[in-house]
Amino acid sequence: MLDFPLSDGYLPKEMYIFLGAVIGAVAAYITTKITVRNQVRIAEINAQKDVVLQSDRLLHERVMAEVALERKELRKMHVILSRVSLETSLTMSYIQSDNNMRLHEFRERYMESCHRLHEAKAISDIYYPEMSDSVCKIYGQTNVFWGDQESVLRTDIKDNRDVWECSLSKVIQTGNEISSYSRALQEKISNRGEELKNTLGKRFD
What we know:
205 residues, mainly alpha, transmembrane, membrane, de novo design (two linked rop proteins)
């Protein structure tokens, strides 16, 4: 223990120096501790901000990827419906008749049409179940159309005009129904595309 004699009621000079050193050391310790604590807190806040920013970036990328995929599938469905409407139109019926299309070629085109509609059905079942019934109706009507159109191609108008005209009348009626179903479904697709656009804009405005 330090022993400093008192002089005239005052602490000796050495004692003042010692106390000053102690007080300075304590003050430095407290200051250092507060500084370290603040630095740790700032580091924690910055780390939390980095985590939030990283999470937002990953969420943004995921949403963008999902929207891009869904828009791609919507576009594919829209194109399929346009192709089906063309294939089952009166114009295409006349073209096939005028070109004397062979039955094996006609049936190959029928199988291609079925394949496209199967793809549309898969897309609707996975992404848009509310559209599946419409796709099924179109698929059913296209089968009727292709059957009637084959009858048109197989019938010689010179030998059996009544049968040819009856088959053509069915082709026209069924083709119009398919076109109507397709337009209604394409409108739903367009509305869904607009919803995706608006949702994306609201999410990242």
